[in-house]
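[Meeting: bench + compute handoff]

Bench side (C.D.) handed over the final construct sequence. Compute side (W.E.) agreed to return the predicted structure before the next meeting so the bench team could plan truncations. Sequence as handed over:
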Amino acid sequence: MKAFIINRYGKKQAGLIDEMPAPEVGDEDVLVQIHAASVNALDIKIKSGEFKLILPYRLPLVLGNDMAGKVVRVGSRVHGFKPGDEVYARPDDDRIGTFAELIAVKASSLAPKPQNLTMVEAASLPLVALTAWQVLVETAKLKKGQSVFIQAGSGGVGTVAIQLAKHLGAFVATTTSTANIGWVKALGADVVIDYKQQDFATELRDYDVVLNSLGNDELKKSLQILKPGGHLISISGPPTPAFAAAKRLAWPLKQVLRLLSFGVRRQAKKDGVEYTFVFMRADGTQLREITSLVESGAIRPVVDKVFPFEDAHKALAYAESGRAKGKVVVQVM
């Protein structure tokens, strides 16, 4: 099969399309012919080698962390999927590789594609929608009437998180650039901070939850805007000892993560708030819940640009530029 691969880690690695062996299909796997896959910040971080300690992949590596397509074959223990079904998924961490013609995905990580979406639209959702769900529903347990600050409202996670938070009945604040203010308000944001002209740390106060997706400066400032008992949840780090334990990382790596997150955990405790690091995981059951929300109209995908498969390297470069509103998609078929 044709696949987009990297042979070594590095920020300047462009990647290339090459022939790779077709995936093996286990008893609990589903073989999917990929129609479209989307680019995520995770792909860029994996390509640069940022996650090689906690995600030790073998090279050459097929990139890509979510997709939509059609079932080709199912394993002997799989029930609920059959050849021809339209599906979408975020494969498990150790099974990535959606920038390809085929992928074998655990049946438990797969869900039926929303009927009201195209393959391109569906491919844009799994990773960012599961991230938003696992932050806001699972970790924060966001309730009606609570307030949440979602950083980078025009990004892939931000666009979905705003819509999900509004569906849950929360008051939503976000940040974006001047040009995107009206557009982000249309997604449901109640307060929009123009990060080019305003500092959210001086504009916002007494929030219940913060979804941090940016750097260390924004992380520190986020602590300042939470009310006592509030919850700072970061998807961009630093990882915590709890994450290291859940991932069963080696003892030396656990100590490294303990040190990396020590400052923010100490400050959070001092401020009377909670700090959690979330590294999203594949979950077909949650993805089915998201399918229902998409089909009801509560969440709609936001696709900025679609690239043909042969231009997958351009799709990655465009996503890395930070100019995208919503998601960048690679059309495989």
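W.E. noted at the follow-up: The chain has two domains: 2-125+301-331, 128-277. C.D. will use this when planning the next construct.
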